[in-house]
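A student in our group prepared the protein record below, which I am reviewing. Here is the record exactly as it was handed to me.
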Amino acid sequence: MTKRHSWSVITPASIVIERFGSIRAVAEALALERTAVQRWTYARPKGTGGTIPQKHWAPLMERARKAGIELQADDLMPPNVKAS
């Protein structure tokens, strides 16, 4: 069963978690602990403030492609970095 989240702010973390279906699915795709992915959703300083560490970008893109999940590099970039 896929848990749907109700995000108040759209962030790279919320986009990826929503597309993969759950925090657990993202964690499994990257061979990470669930809590590591969950921290992406926490405000700083306890979390990443919605950003995804760059070291996970390429593996996320590859896992998404293999799973047929639509994910663009732009989805992983923080809002202040995205091209308009």
The chain has one domain: 12-76. The radius of gyration is 12 Å. Helices lie at 12-20, 23-30, 34-39, 57-67, 73-76.
